[in-house]
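Why predict the complex rather than its parts? Because the way molecules touch one another can change local conformation, and only a joint prediction can capture that. The input here totals 224 residues.
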Amino acid sequence: MTVRDNLAAVRQRIEAACARAGRNPADVRIVAVTKYIDAERALHVLDAGIADLGENRAGQLLEKYERIGDRAVWHFIGTLQSRKVKEIIDKVDYIHSLDRLSLAKEIEKRAVRPVKCFVQVNVSGEATKHGLSPDETVPFIEQLRSFSHIEVVGLMTMAPHIEDEAVLRTCFRQLRALKERVQALRLAHAPCTELSMGMSNDYEIAIEEGATFVRIGSALVGSL
Ligand SMILES: *Cc1c(COP(=O)(O)O)cnc(C)c1O
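Output of the joint prediction:
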């Protein structure tokens, strides 16, 4: 399978999920997660017509950025160590994993322009997952009011690795409800209009529940 074949299949499934939910497919942005492939192959993803690339490690992002540069819109999607912020901050357009005040302070200190951030929420409550608890999320976002270089564009979550559709759906639904709570506060620094949720195994359910950014790796590039 080529990335074009994979992309056509993913797009078809996105369209079907949107149809089921009465949504416009143009409102769902595909972030191609390129962590499994090298920079040369990542270029094929861009050639196939996807502009948004996601990486979960600073080293891999830098390596690919060297080759690809600003031809891609870069998304940092993994756990971000504060000491790595300065290495990637002028290269990334989106950070999907803002999950603590110390990280926000480091971003604020190093950024030269406002950075679009998703606050990561651990909706499922699994001990192994990063992210704020739902209860901590609103107070955390309110604390970012004075951070002139952080724009909270939305919330992000990773659903548990399970097949149970009902559990996944509940998880995505809870993130959406939380997003709507933040949105209702009408905070200038936190428009919070976006939902980054859904990966290869659960993106269709995530879209039915309102995802606006899906982070898809293996279904797009896993077979390259
Ligand atoms: C790897 C990764 C993805 C993509 O996972 P796939 O199951 O391969 O689609 C999405 N989000 C994050 C944070 C990841 O680390």
